[in-house]
Amino acid sequence: MSDHYCVLGNPVEHSKSPLIHQRFGEQTGQEIVYTAELAPLDGFVATWRAFCEGGGRGANVTVPFKEQAFALCDTLSERARRAGAVNTLINGQNGRVYGDNTDGVGLLRDLDAHHIPLKGVRILVLGAGGAVRGVLAPLLERGPREVVIINRTGAKAAALARDFADLGAVVGGGYDALEGPFDLVINGTSASLAGELPPLPEALFTPGGFAYDMMYAAEPTVFLRWAQDHGATPVDGLGMLVEQAAEAFFLWRRVRPDTGPVRALLRRALTG
Ligand code: NDP
């Protein structure tokens, strides 16, 4: 019988994870079934436990449950512990739950795929939510000159900067503290979901700078359109989605899928 995995979220019906993991399974000859499971907002843990009792082997976790997933784990990877959020669960031996966070490695692999330099550069990260928590440690480990975290609620960005200060030069605050230019600006806010643009100064990018939006859509987001108009090269978060999924697949199956064809498939599915 095939091993069963799922993505747990609310909402979850538009998730691309089932398509991605089914393709990974076909490509690597791994017999898996992967479904999208809607967890009630007050019933995340119960949904995960019921999934495990039915034989489920592991899950991806998406909005808004990554912190609850972190709390239910018996064992955490170092990167999940640092992030304070879990996006990959493994139903282990004797019902023990192992949690990891693959968002950071997913972003880094995508930045590498686009040949975006990180060492010695100045990076702006917009937002201070779960996604940003997951990517700060891997970004800082690449040795940027400075990472500046800016958030609508400035105190959250300042607190995040303090939490990660042992890993490198990182400062945080509100939009009034924002001073460019930056070689790379990563939008980790959910503003693009609402078609909104955070309040950004005109001189945001260095010449040849890059703009990365963790969100992806059929059309470029308002942030990426603005960035392109201001001289930056725009990249959306589709590659990050595929790469974080590949890392989760590896954790579950110990086989690394080839992400290139799945990126291309997803891009076609997105743009029709
Ligand atoms: P959270 O809800 O945890 O955090 C949202 C963040 O966005 C907060 O910092 C919030 O600020 C800020 N924000 C929301 N609306 C606005 C606005 N109008 N203007 C400025 N800032 C705003 O979300 P996540 O961190 O989980 O996700 C963030 C984004 O990243 C989402 O779009 C998500 O889809 C995407 N993502 C993509 C992944 C991928 O694989 N491509 C993986 C994970 C996430 P405040 O604190 O002030 O409320």
From TrEMBL:
<keyword id="KW-0057">Aromatic amino acid biosynthesis</keyword>
<protein>
    <recommendedName>
        <fullName>Shikimate dehydrogenase (NADP(+))</fullName>
        <ecNumber>1.1.1.25</ecNumber>
    </recommendedName>
</protein>
<feature type="binding site">
    <location>
        <position position="87"/>
    </location>
    <ligand>
        <name>shikimate</name>
    </ligand>
</feature>
<dbReference type="InterPro" id="IPR036291">
    <property type="entry name" value="NAD(P)-bd_dom_sf"/>
</dbReference>
<keyword id="KW-0521">NADP</keyword>
<dbReference type="InterPro" id="IPR011342">
    <property type="entry name" value="Shikimate_DH"/>
</dbReference>
<feature type="binding site">
    <location>
        <position position="62"/>
    </location>
    <ligand>
        <name>shikimate</name>
    </ligand>
</feature>
<dbReference type="Pfam" id="PF08501">
    <property type="entry name" value="Shikimate_dh_N"/>
</dbReference>
<dbReference type="GO" id="GO:0004764">
    <property type="term" value="F:shikimate 3-dehydrogenase (NADP+) activity"/>
</dbReference>
<feature type="binding site">
    <location>
        <position position="78"/>
    </location>
    <ligand>
        <name>NADP(+)</name>
    </ligand>
</feature>
<dbReference type="InterPro" id="IPR041121">
    <property type="entry name" value="SDH_C"/>
</dbReference>
<feature type="binding site">
    <location>
        <position position="216"/>
    </location>
    <ligand>
        <name>shikimate</name>
    </ligand>
</feature>
<feature type="binding site">
    <location>
        <begin position="127"/>
        <end position="131"/>
    </location>
    <ligand>
        <name>NADP(+)</name>
    </ligand>
</feature>
<dbReference type="InterPro" id="IPR013708">
    <property type="entry name" value="Shikimate_DH-bd_N"/>
</dbReference>
<feature type="domain" description="SDH C-terminal">
    <location>
        <begin position="237"/>
        <end position="267"/>
    </location>
</feature>
<keyword id="KW-0028">Amino-acid biosynthesis</keyword>
<comment type="subunit">
    <text>Homodimer.</text>
</comment>
<dbReference type="InterPro" id="IPR006151">
    <property type="entry name" value="Shikm_DH/Glu-tRNA_Rdtase"/>
</dbReference>
<feature type="active site" description="Proton acceptor">
    <location>
        <position position="66"/>
    </location>
</feature>
<feature type="binding site">
    <location>
        <position position="103"/>
    </location>
    <ligand>
        <name>shikimate</name>
    </ligand>
</feature>
<comment type="similarity">
    <text>Belongs to the shikimate dehydrogenase family.</text>
</comment>
<feature type="binding site">
    <location>
        <position position="214"/>
    </location>
    <ligand>
        <name>NADP(+)</name>
    </ligand>
</feature>
<keyword id="KW-0560">Oxidoreductase</keyword>
<dbReference type="InterPro" id="IPR022893">
    <property type="entry name" value="Shikimate_DH_fam"/>
</dbReference>
<comment type="pathway">
    <text>Metabolic intermediate biosynthesis; chorismate biosynthesis; chorismate from D-erythrose 4-phosphate and phosphoenolpyruvate: step 4/7.</text>
</comment>
<dbReference type="Pfam" id="PF18317">
    <property type="entry name" value="SDH_C"/>
</dbReference>
<dbReference type="InterPro" id="IPR046346">
    <property type="entry name" value="Aminoacid_DH-like_N_sf"/>
</dbReference>
<feature type="binding site">
    <location>
        <begin position="151"/>
        <end position="156"/>
    </location>
    <ligand>
        <name>NADP(+)</name>
    </ligand>
</feature>
<dbReference type="Pfam" id="PF01488">
    <property type="entry name" value="Shikimate_DH"/>
</dbReference>
<feature type="domain" description="Shikimate dehydrogenase substrate binding N-terminal">
    <location>
        <begin position="7"/>
        <end position="89"/>
    </location>
</feature>
<feature type="binding site">
    <location>
        <begin position="15"/>
        <end position="17"/>
    </location>
    <ligand>
        <name>shikimate</name>
    </ligand>
</feature>
<feature type="domain" description="Quinate/shikimate 5-dehydrogenase/glutamyl-tRNA reductase">
    <location>
        <begin position="118"/>
        <end position="166"/>
    </location>
</feature>
<feature type="binding site">
    <location>
        <position position="237"/>
    </location>
    <ligand>
        <name>NADP(+)</name>
    </ligand>
</feature>
<comment type="function">
    <text>Involved in the biosynthesis of the chorismate, which leads to the biosynthesis of aromatic amino acids. Catalyzes the reversible NADPH linked reduction of 3-dehydroshikimate (DHSA) to yield shikimate (SA).</text>
</comment>
<feature type="binding site">
    <location>
        <position position="244"/>
    </location>
    <ligand>
        <name>shikimate</name>
    </ligand>
</feature>
